[in-house]
Amino acid sequence: MDIHTHYVPLGWPDLATAAGPAPDWPWLRVTSERDAMIMVGSREFRRIGADCWDADTRLADMAADGIDAQVISPTPVFFHYDRPADQAIKVAKIFNDLALEICAPAPGRLLPFAQVPLQDPDAACRELDRCLANGHHGVEIGNHVGDRDLDDEGIVTFLQHCADRGAPVFVHPWDMPASPRLDRWMAQWLTGMPAETHLSVLALILGGVFDRVPDTLRICFAHGGGSFAFWLGRLENAWHRRADVIATSAHPPSHYTDRFSVDSVVFEPTALRTLVDTLGASQVMVGSDYPYPLGERPVGEVVHRSDFLDEAGRAAILGGNARRFLGLPTV
Fold this sequence. Notes:
This protein is α/β, with parallel strands linked by helices and about 325 residues long. The protein has helices at about 15-20, 55-65, 85-105, 120-135, 155-165, 185-205, 210, 230-240, 245, 270-280, 300-305, 310-325; strands spanning about 1-5, 25-30, 35-40, 45-50, 70-75, 110-115, 140, 170, 220, 260-265, 285. The chain has one domain (about 1-5, about 55-325): Alpha-Beta Barrel (TIM Barrel). The chain contains 12 helices and 11 strands. The strands form 2 sheets. It has an 8-stranded parallel β-sheet. Strands 2-3-4 form a 3-stranded antiparallel β-sheet, with no helix packed on it. It is globular, with a radius of gyration of 19 Å. It is an enzyme of class 4 (lyase). One of its GO terms (biological process) is secondary metabolic process.
């Protein structure tokens, strides 16, 4: 089971008309039946293909890679946390309903996750409830809302609601800082994304969120949790040596490593071993970032190449952990 994939519909209503006037709404420039360009205003954002919207294409690729089911989450450029909440609500509803249409040809195999207007916690809770009732299996959120991280009171309210509803949460980095140093070599994606994810795991730990939200919250971080696993020792050392600055959590950081999961998009067995050694095999799930170019193909290859895994650990990472995360019956 692949818990990290994305979709983009083959077109959507004009957002300036549907959600309200604003600069740089995204739109799709379709170049053929199988190719398109996501535009943000007049700027080209990302070239995409039919694997973003066509169920048959996705199912063929899944068959080639031996994948039984995909979690299909929004592409973060559509979150719009920086817009007025009433506009973000309308956009979320549009894309959430289109996600159901994309997944409809393969129920049980294509599992849609919703997006919510996270800048408005009450509206986010209402939209989550609407989506769960309509057939979504969980929610993807960005890792921050402007300067508000995951320990922000409003976001904690939403996470509490997810725990109460039994809705799994997938956290994806987005809206990375830009600078002349980061605008080269895809550095926002290669260094910014891991750093953003690491920072947001810290927010849940050092911000005391895990001390306040019940352990029924099922939350997973993309891209192997960023750089967190590699630097847990540094964080642990700082918690003990500089308690006057950072020891705001009830326990040392290592106490919380069973409170969240990560995906396996780390590409090398040595990196996967670091995740397993740090978090435990029970906290890692196959993810691919399909269908984007920085994703893994064949999906799950790093798990199959990892000789250090025993049969039980490999089976858990390939599917058992995802079924638990999604609240599906075990097989």
